[in-house]
Amino acid sequence: MAEFDLVIRNGMVIDGTRVPRYRADIGIKDGLVADLGRLAAHRGRREIDAGGCIVAPGFVDLHTHYDAQLFWDPYCTLSGWHGITSAVIGNCGFGFAPVRPAERERAMLSMTRVEAIPYAAMKAGMPWDWTTFPEFLDRVERTPKAINLLPYVPIGPLLVWVMGLAAATAGNLPSPAEHAEICRIFEESLDAGGCGWPSASCPAAQRPSNWTTTARRW
Ligand SMILES: [Zn+2]
């Protein structure tokens, strides 16, 4: 009888604890590593021969812009190819919720301008059947995915939602009432599954528009 749900055999294990790599079998039960070592006498309901392969824990990518690509690429290529099993989205304050229908074009153009995500791909691949952040998360939830996603609540769309496009892009500070509304929506978004609050941490987002490629100084 199988003791494990899955046994990964004969892989070269790099476990992330800074010990040298070693060859081992890994027994997995109920979604957790239950044993590690030579498991020749043990069986799994499913077995994978990992000979010639590296076996390592999944990596977390803390800064991505897969907010659109996740809808047509479940592996979030290239991250999925490189061993990423969890990716944060919504970095740098950019994202697609909350966004009213009238602001969708602007949101996609911003993502193209600042993060170099091709507009044509977003136009063709975004289902856009949400407006609020919780509705966006519901859509992400229903979308087939090969990796885990940790969604920030992006500040850019939230400022536009509450203050309007002109005031938000002019750099105005929110009024006390607007600030309270931003906080209310932020709390609501965290309750729905948002993992935090990003601002413009990306060098590209801070670059004055008159800088050229050769003048980059970060
Ligand atoms: Zn970024």
Report on this model:
The chain has 218 residues and is α/β, with parallel strands linked by helices. The chain folds into two domains: 4-57, Roll (Urease, subunit C, domain 1), CATH 2.30.40.10; 60-206, TIM Barrel. 29% of the residues lie in helices and 21% in strands. The protein is built from seven helices and eight strands; from the N terminus they run E-E-E-E-E-E-E-H-H-H-E-H-H-H-H. Strands 1, 2, 3, 4 and 5 form a five-stranded mixed sheet that branches. Strands 6-7-8 form a three-stranded parallel sheet, with no helix packed on it. Strand 1 and strand 2 form a beta hairpin. Helix 4 (155-163) crosses helix 6. It is elongated. 26% of the residues are buried. It binds zinc ion.
Query: Helix/strand/pairing class, anyone?
Result: alpha/beta
CATH topology of the largest domain: TIM Barrel
Number of strands: 8
Q: Major sheet: size, sense and barrel closure?
A: 5 strands, mixed
The 3D shape can be described as elongated
Order of helices and strands: EEEEEEEHHHEHHHH
Task: Give the rounded overall mean pLDDT.
Answer: 90
How much is the radius of gyration in Å? 22 Å
In terms of DSSP E residues, the strand content is 15-25%
Cofactors, ions, other ligands: zinc ion
Helix count? 7
Task: Give the helix proportion (percent range).
Answer: 25-40%
